[in-house]
Write a sequence for this structure.
DNA sequence: ATTGGGTCTTGACATATCTCACGAATATAT
DNA sequence: ATATATTCGTGAGATATGTCAAGACCCAAT
């Protein structure tokens, strides 16, 4: 079970058994059913979540109650409302299961302890953060430069598996386009 | 001169004189005039830059030769084509001075040495990366949820100083809206 | 004083996308 | 098996924004 996390970390930095045991001791395993919430707007954000299996959506809900998808979290993704997590404030985003999901949870306190206790893990999280930043930057460029249809085609190319797993209305909410407009692209 | 960098770092982690001397030894100072390029598309990206004074634009140029502004870098910002920097590949973005500018340059090699030699600096860069990621995420949400006019008003509120320093055509290129459309908002 | 480059505004028209409405197809729960 | 909710596609009209063109303004250099 925890092997998934170990392999994930070892893609970036090698760990011996003792080190991984130390790492693993900071996590707790939680299981959720489709439609359950890991984070709700206004509540405390206790954990950063490593997705062992399943699929989640991180959502911003606007004044009109319209949902916008900040990101999808599949296997091997880390996900949380990170602003609230790092600043230990209340959630402005929600995190909800699109499928039955298993996550490994890391509290903010344990996150700090882990980094302080094992130098390598601070390095690991730095790499993760850098990749997250670069991914966001690429998405911004896509939003600035491409039409809705082009963004849809880019998404198909980059994440073909997503299309099988989530309804198109959610892809639309991720791309920043209406459900109906996206529907007309397929033709 | 280097005091600016020290104060900047000490907002996040305290340093004694020896530690800062060690940090500073990894940087080189460079000065540029308005219109000069720090990074050009296709060239190597040697440095991450700390802006001591001045103003820069990080630009993505599309197939139609249209410019899109990934970010503005003012005093105390770190800027580079970070994808190319981290992967040591060729630049896809350009970095150009909008004003006469002084930067402190950190090569990739020195960046690694700095992190390895002084634990605290890895921590510092992790904080920076996290903030960069959160900033990008907020901009994505803004692009997904708000009209061009709303995004303009948000920018005015968040960075009123920018408006004095850069032509509106560049603000438009940052917001993802045409120069003409942005011009009509002021009324 | 004059020139030339950059900036800003504005009008007219084109186009992408949104919204609302409806119905068909499909999945899900009882 | 039936009922119910979700999902998907499509038409028609509204709206935001883009594009092209013209002119006004400002400022630095000659």
């Amino acid at each position: 079970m925890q092997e998934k996390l170990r392999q994930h970390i070892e893609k970036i930095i090698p760990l011996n058994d003792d080190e991984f045991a130390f790492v693993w001791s900071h996590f707790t395993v939680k299981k959720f059913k489709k439609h359950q919430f890991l984070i709700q707007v206004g509540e405390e954000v206790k954990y950063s979540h490593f997705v062992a299996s399943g699929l989640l959506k991180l959502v911003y809900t606007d004044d009109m109650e319209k949902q916008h998808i900040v990101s999808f979290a599949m296997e091997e993704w880390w996900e949380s409302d990170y602003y609230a997590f790092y600043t230990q404030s209340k959630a402005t985003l929600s995190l909800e299961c699109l499928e039955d999901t298993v996550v490994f949870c890391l509290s903010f306190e344990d996150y700090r302890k882990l980094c302080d206790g094992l130098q390598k893990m601070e390095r690991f999280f730095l790499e993760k953060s850098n990749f997250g930043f670069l991914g966001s930057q690429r998405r911004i460029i896509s939003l600035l430069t491409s039409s809705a249809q082009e963004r849809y085609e880019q998404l198909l190319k980059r994440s073909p598996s997503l299309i099988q797993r989530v309804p198109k209305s959610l892809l639309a909410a991720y791309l920043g386009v209406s459900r109906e407009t996206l529907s007309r692209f397929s033709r």
Observations:
- Residues 167-169, 179-180, 183-184, 186-187 of chain B lie near DNA strand C (CB under 10 Å from a C1').
- The CA atoms of residues 152 and 158 of chain B lie 10 Å apart.
- Chain B has a mean pLDDT of 96.
- The radius of gyration of chain B is 17 Å.
